């Protein structure tokens, strides 16, 4: 019996489509009812494709060549005192997503003191690619002290990490991997992913060229502060600092830091990290900006007296100049809880 033309035939074709997509596809089977509804809509409009219809209801991995506006907007509105980060991250991520012929995955290494915005930036990068951000099933976070706590299990961790990356990139080429606390990572563990970051077209039949890797670390913060202080003492503003003033010294500092997961790492030696992104230490004025944004985000009117009091209570370094907050904006949230009856 021939199948009559129309929505039902299209629906059955759509229902069978996942069988031909293979295991590497992120598209999952959908119900016949939904398929029929989608086919009917397609027949009526002529432009609704199966992947688009499916992804309207469920998150899926589709080729993405443009950023969601969250990246630039959030960096402009909520990241303070980090002109280098703003410029480098936007250009790096946007350029990578727009490159249809990337030769390797994108690898960003974010460095700076606690509270300067590293986790925040990784969060909004995730949000700029996937609607669910860090909650997306295509975004994978690793915390050194949580996921790799035991030095004696380093070989097991290497095998598990390689398997996890291989499996998830097979499902979604545009996977995002975030490694936090790199300064607490066992030296050598991160080297196990070197093949995935290299210039290979395929590894065991899998391409990693669309994946993104982000590393977060306090390592190198001293070198970043040293550069910032030199500019300040020479009467130059922090906005005069260029990436070239910091990046090379930062990569050398991280490479030689025995407390860093990048200690003598071939990822650095073989130039597989695309950008070492320096987060400058935050000044008093930046702390006040953080306090203001946090108050406004909770829906309260800003009390300038409380705002100033919170900023004044933070500790600053060096001891003589008291220029930079030693915790950045990290404790702003808890201090607000003390002063405001939320």
Label this structure with key terms.
single chain; 342 residues; alpha/beta; five-stranded parallel sheet; two-stranded antiparallel sheet; 15 helices; 9% strand; disordered N terminus
Describe what you observe in this structure.
- This protein is of the alpha/beta class and 342 residues long.
- It is 47% helix and 9% strand.
- It is built from 15 helices and seven strands.
- The protein has helices at 7-21, 32-45, 50-57, 70-78, 83-98, 118-129, 144-147, 154-171, 194-197, 221-233, 243-255, 266-269, 284-297, 304-313, 332-339; strands at 106-111, 139-143, 176-180, 212-217, 275-278, 316-317, 324-325.
- The strands form two sheets. Strands 2-3-4-1-5 form a five-stranded parallel β-sheet. A two-stranded antiparallel ribbon has the order 6-7.
- Helix 9 (194-197) links the parallel strand 3 and strand 4 (212-217).
- The longest helix is centred in the middle third of the chain and has 18 residues, at 154-171.
- Mean pLDDT is 84; it is low at 1-49.
């Amino acid at each position: 019996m021939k199948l009559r033309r129309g929505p039902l035939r299209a629906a059955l074709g759509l229902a069978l489509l996942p069988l031909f997509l293979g295991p590497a596809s992120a598209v999952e089977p959908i119900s016949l009812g939904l398929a029929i509804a989608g086919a009917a809509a397609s027949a009526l409009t002529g432009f609704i494709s199966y992947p688009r219809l499916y992804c309207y209801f469920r998150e899926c991995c589709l080729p993405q060549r443009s950023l969601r506006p969250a990246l630039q907007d959030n960096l402009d509105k909520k990241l303070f005192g980090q002109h280098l980060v703003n410029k480098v991250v936007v250009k790096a991520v946007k350029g990578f997503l727009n490159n249809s012929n990337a030769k390797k995955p994108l690898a960003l290494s974010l460095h700076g003191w606690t509270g300067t915005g590293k986790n925040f930036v990784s969060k909004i990068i995730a949000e700029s690619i996937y609607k669910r951000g860090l909650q997306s099933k295509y975004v994978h976070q690793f915390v050194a002290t949580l996921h790799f706590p035991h030095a004696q299990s380093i070989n097991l961790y290497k095998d598990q990490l390689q398997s996890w990356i291989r499996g998830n990139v097979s499902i979604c080429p545009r996977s995002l991997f975030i490694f936090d606390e790199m300064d607490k990572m066992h030296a050598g563990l991160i080297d196990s992913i070197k093949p995935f970051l290299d210039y290979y077209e395929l590894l065991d039949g899998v391409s990693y060229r669309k994946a993104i890797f982000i590393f977060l670390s306090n390592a190198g913060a001293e070198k970043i502060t040293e550069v910032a202080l030199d500019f300040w003492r020479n009467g130059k503003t922090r906005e005069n600092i260029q990436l070239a003033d910091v990046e090379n010294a930062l990569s050398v500092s991280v490479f030689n830091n025995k407390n860093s997961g990048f200690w003598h790492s071939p990822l650095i030696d073989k130039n597989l990290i695309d950008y070492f992104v320096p987060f400058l230490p935050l000044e008093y004025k930046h702390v006040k900006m953080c306090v203001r944004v946090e108050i406004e985000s909770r829906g309260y009117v800003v009390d300038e007296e409380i705002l100033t009091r919170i900023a004044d209570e933070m500790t600053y370094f060096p001891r003589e100049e008291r220029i930079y907050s030693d915790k950045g904006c990290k404790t702003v949230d808890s201090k607000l809880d003390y002063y405001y009856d939320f």
